[in-house]
Design a protein that fits this description.
The complex is a heterodimer of chains A (about 300) and B (about 280). By secondary structure, chain A is of the alpha/beta class. Chain A is built from 8 helices and 12 strands. Chain A is about 30% helix and about 20% strand. In chain A, strands 6-7-8-3-9-10-11-12 form an 8-stranded mixed beta sheet, sandwiched between helices. Chain A has a 4-stranded antiparallel beta sheet with strand order 2-1-4-5, covered by helices on one side. In chain A, β9 and β10 form a beta hairpin. In chain A, α2 (about 95-110) crosses α3 and α3 (about 115-125) crosses α4 (about 145-155). Chain B has one domain: MetI-like fold, CATH 1.10.3720.10. Chain B is built from 11 helices and no strands. Chain B has helices spanning about 5-30, 40-45, 55-70, 80-110, 115-125, 135-145, 145-170, 175-185, 190-225, 230-240, 245-270. In chain B, α9 (about 190-225) runs parallel beside α10. Classes of the chains: A alpha/beta (about 300), B mainly alpha (about 280). Chains A and B meet through β6 and α2 of A and α8 and α9 of B.
Chain lengths: ~300, ~280
């Protein structure tokens, strides 16, 4: 069965500075699948190529090896089907918040009337709470949180098939980050958008995602594990921490980031013994009642159907 | 009472002006007070060899005369100051606009294509430092028309700052903004108009301001060479008439017009400026 988004054997090698010898391979053999409507987060240390993977998914960069297939079509170049929110907001500073959204809506729907574009843009600006005059301000007159809200509104407004978020809250203070996470969660649950997000924040990843991909340290980084987060939705910041699996997942992530990401660095993934095909990361699940992680080796039934190793 | 910085600066400017004009006027009165030359002095040539620089009051009177009837035309050597300024502005604007029409698109091309940048850079580096007046003989020979040659000289001197600034501004557009255009599937023309032009506009306007300044500097010299009409010709003509009052008046007028041209472009620059 083919998934909504399939990434197969993706590698990125930058040529050596003097064009001799081996270049720098940032990540290698990245293979993953994302189902429609899934919210997937990627965590890894700086330099593991997370952003490069996201840029390849966006079509802004090309991979050295491997393919990305979305909805049955190979990704080649940027497209309105994939909306991107960058860490530094990437708003056009000479346009008002509203115009930053309308230009995107116009690009998406060239045949819409001015009224339609305006109305649609306002719908999404309202979702992020940016109306009542604030929408006419220029980005530099808005706070960092407000800017990122505009950027999120813009990305949702073009109704892409896949939303790519590159550390969207990395530059925000903790309180602002919290409130925008809540907003993102609320908007996302209303749209059922497929989301691929990069973050450094373990709690953020657990709060938001269905699955968390863990990357080993670069160079030659790999996606080593896919941790399923099966905490019931709708989730809330205050109640999620009381979920029995919350700390088990959290501890697993912290342990991976502080220890195993370095230990596993540069090592190929254990093959599942199915030939030379690209190896998918092993799936880690936590039973809601018991904190012990169940690894897929010898525990086949614990794998969710969509993620089971291909037969 | 505390005045704002602006008001205090204005007061000080007026004080400087009054002092300057006062000293100038007084020194002239002192020189004139030597008195009528005796016949002996005139015969022996012992009078001051220097003709006195006219006092500000005389210049004011001349300015009033000229500006109260700026557009009279009493033949080739006697036209109103408005007509002369008009000729100069016409040449400057014609050469300047022609330069803008070529420099801005070409600057876009150079800024967007590293290949074109490298390929055209040697030409720009050699052509840029040439004094625009050095082109004059060649222009006169090829164009065979002194008026058009003056316009060409303006064209050639104003093209470089606009070209270089446009290329610099376009090449320096943030990659993030270009990526915004790419992820929204904007075509080349749309990317240029929606993202690159507004992003580079402040830098382009800086180039346009430098260019108009240089063009206004050069037109005076060019018109002294080609003659006939224009403020540069007027200055030279009045020098030949030994009418220093008119020379000083026109020098000041050149300054005022140049300042106005710059202020106009500064206003446009403010419109396209953005805070990041």
């Amino acid at each position: 069965m083919s998934s909504f988004l399939e990434v197969q054997g993706l590698s990125k090698t930058y040529p050596a500075p003097n064009r001799k010898g081996e270049g720098l391979t940032v990540f290698r053999d990245v293979t993953l699948r994302i189902e429609k409507g899934e919210f997937v987060c990627v965590i890894g240390h700086s330099g593991c190529g997370k952003s490069t993977i996201l840029n390849v998914l966006a079509g802004l960069e090309t991979a050295s090896k491997g393919v990305v297939i979305m909805d049955g079509k190979e990704v080649a170049g940027p497209s309105l089907d994939r909306g991107v929110v960058f860490q530094n907001y990437s708003l056009l500073p000479w346009l008002s918040a509203l115009s930053n959204v309308t230009f995107a809506v116009k690009a998406r729907n060239p045949k819409w009337s001015r009224e339609q574009v305006r109305e649609h843009s306002y719908t999404y600006l309202e979702m992020v709470g940016l109306t009542g005059g604030a929408e006419h301000r220029k980005p530099h007159q808005l706070s960092g949180g407000m800017r990122q809200r505009v950027s999120i509104a813009r990305a949702f407004a073009i109704q892409p098939k896949l939303l790519l978020l590159d550390e969207p809250f990395g530059a925000l203070d903790a309180l602002t980050r919290g409130s925008i996470q809540d907003e993102l969660l609320r908007i996302w649950s209303g749209t059922g958008q497929t989301v691929f997000m990069i973050t450094h924040d373990v709690d953020e990843a657990i709060l938001l995602s269905d699955r968390i991909l863990l990357m080993t340290n670069g160079p030659e980084a790999r996606v080593a594990e896919s941790v399923a987060v099966e905490i019931k939705r709708p989730r809330e910041r205050a109640s999620i921490i009381h979920d029995p699996s919350y700390y088990a997942i959290r501890n697993h992530l912290v342990e991976f980031l502080s220890k195993r990401s370095a230990e596993l660095a540069g090592k190929p993934l254990e093959s599942t013994g199915e030939g030379d095909g690209p190896v998918e990361p092993r799936v880690v699940r936590f039973h809601p009642k018991g904190p012990a992680p169940v690894s897929p080796s010898g525990a086949g039934p614990s794998e969710p159907p969509g993620l089971a190793a291909r037969a | 009472m505390v005045l704002s910085l602006r008001m205090r600066a204005l007061v000080l400017s007026v004080v400087f002006l009054v002092v300057l004009l006062g000293v100038w006027e007084a020194s002239h009165k002192g020189a004139a007070a030597v008195g009528e030359l005796s016949e002996y002095d005139r015969l022996m040539g012992t009078a001051s060899q220097e003709a006195g620089v006219p006092p500000p009051s005389a210049i004011f009177v001349r300015a009033w005369e000229e500006l109260s009837d700026p557009f009279y035309d009493a033949g080739p050597n006697d036209k109103g100051i408005g007509i002369q300024i008009g000729y100069s502005l016409h040449r400057v604007l014609a050469g300047y606009l022609a330069a803008a029409i070529i420099a801005i698109p070409l600057g876009f091309l150079i800024g967007m294509s590293p290949l074109m940048y490298k390929a055209l850079d040697p030409f720009i580096q050699v052509l840029k430092p040439i004094s625009p007046l050095a082109w004059m003989p060649l222009a006169l020979f090829i164009i065979k028309d002194s008026q058009a040659s003056a316009i060409f000289v303006i064209f050639i001197c104003s093209i470089w700052p606009m070209l270089i600034n446009t290329a610099f501004g376009v090449a320096g557009v943030r990659k993030d903004w270009v990526n915004v255009a790419r992820t929204h599937e904007l075509g080349s023309l749309q990317t240029a108009l929606i993202v690159i032009l507004p992003a580079a506009a402040p830098t382009i306007l800086t180039g346009m301001r430098i260019s108009i300044g240089i063009a206004w500097l050069v037109i005076v010299a060019a018109e002294m060479l080609v003659g006939g009409t224009g403020i540069g010709y007027y200055v030279w003509n009045e020098w030949n008439n030994l009418d220093l009052t008119s020379v000083i008046f026109s020098i000041l007028l050149i300054g005022v017009v140049g300042m106005t041209l710059d202020a106009l472009l500064a206003a446009v620059a403010r419109m396209v400026a953005y805070a990041d």
